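Notebook, p. 212. Picked up where the previous page left off. The plan for this session was modest: take the two constructs that came back from the sequencing core last week, fold each one, and keep the raw output in the notebook itself so nobody has to go hunting through shared drives later. Recording the first one now, exactly as returned: residue sequence, then the structure token string.
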Amino acid sequence: MLGSIKRRSSFLFGKDPAQANGQRLRGQRVFCSNRGRRGGCGRTFSVFLAEGLPRFSVTASLLWQWMCLLLNGQTIYAAAATFHPFAPETLYHLRARLRLRLDTLRPRLCRIVPAPQNVQADPRLQTMEHFRLAFPRGDCPPQDFQIHFQAALMG
């Protein structure tokens, strides 16, 4: 809104996968002021850091590490062994959620670079290769995706 004052209200914290009972910063709440002559909406909204995945305790970099293990041929259960704080069911749930998001992710990635010609049979693995091709310079393509499109990777 033109002329409105937006101020930071509070921080958003969530589970830290690296610590047993730890919290980590996930984002910030912002208030769009409508007091006085300001033309704001009077609501608060969340601004998430690109490293976090909204509504998930798994971070974007952990998700990418897991995706790379799958691309290297490991099974989900074997990949879960390397992710100590997470149960295998968490990774199975992430895989299912990622499958439901492919119809949104693939067209966005195609805006950056055409889909690669690959031999992967699994559409999730094809998408992971597309992430690598679309964001070749970054250490964490899911994080780069969220920054580039200003949208949550997992919805």
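Okay, moving on. Second construct, recorded in the same format:
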Amino acid sequence: MLYYFLVPLAKDHIVFNVFRYLTFRSFMALISAFIISLVVGPWLIRRLRELQHGGETIREDTPERHRAKKGTPTMGGIVILTAILATTLLWANLGNRYVWVVILATAGFGLIGVWDDMTKLRTRKGLATRVKFSAQLVLSLGIVQLVFWQAPSAWLPVLSIPFFKGWLIELGWLWIPFAMLVIVGASNAVNLTDGLDGLAIGPVIMAGAAFGVIAYLTGNFRAADYLKILNVRGAGELTVFCGALIGAAIGFLWFNCHPAEIFMGDVGSLALGGAIGTLAVLTKAELLLPLIGGLYVVEALSVIIQVASFKLTGRRVFRMAPLHHHYELSGWPEPKIVVRFWIVSFALALLALTTLKLR
């Protein structure tokens, strides 16, 4: 909103010209989201603690030591959503289609998360997998439709191949199910990773920073031409959303670091995963997502491997899945697991960014 009020004033005074710049608005979005998280966080923690009456918020399929966290309120992702959405609406150019697409994805997956969290508080089991997955598919289908049906001059349903200059695969209508898979897969991968204090939110900060760089470069014709990456007109405005994502995540980590005062819940993990997947789709970085979100991919694969191995052979590959629980049962302290996973995530994000030049 501020974009529309302040940018026109640039013709009257040069000081307002700064609001034209993506870098300035992205930085302000980061700071604003961080402050909103710190302000809203304590109030929401108190309210959720009162509403949940110290009820059980720990998943059943977790190590026994997690029982000591009983009574910690969940659904803290509401803090993240509030900060991201409010800040994006404040600082982004709302005439940009991609900004509204990523807002819809974040809010939509967040609502599915609220539904799942509320069900868990009543039944301890949450939504049936079929219902939850169906809702995600319907939402992701709506999201990709908003992107797909554009003029070829604005959008091409192609897949950009990392490490190779100008290698594009024309997908046509197959881009729709592919993009849906990316978005839904990212949402569920972050959800599976959310099992230790601060574990899921740390890599979100790194993914937000990586996609912020990619969005800025992809949306800038000169930078895209220099790096030989696909130029997506209008994608640069997503840098503001990425700034809001980073600020909100850092603010939430203030309360979610060990020992956590509040849990993210599905409202946070599904929304953040959906946002990251949507950013990958909009910036044509779908094949970089497994690197940028490498930690989430490994966590999701550990669950798939564990289930497949047990059904096929009757044996478990890991002591417990997802992978972070395996290390817990191996004797690693929770903070050590979290920090080491953050380090891996940071290294993978940097590696993904280097591919922009190695073409």
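Notes on construct two before I forget. The radius of gyration is 20 Å.
Flagging for discussion at group meeting.
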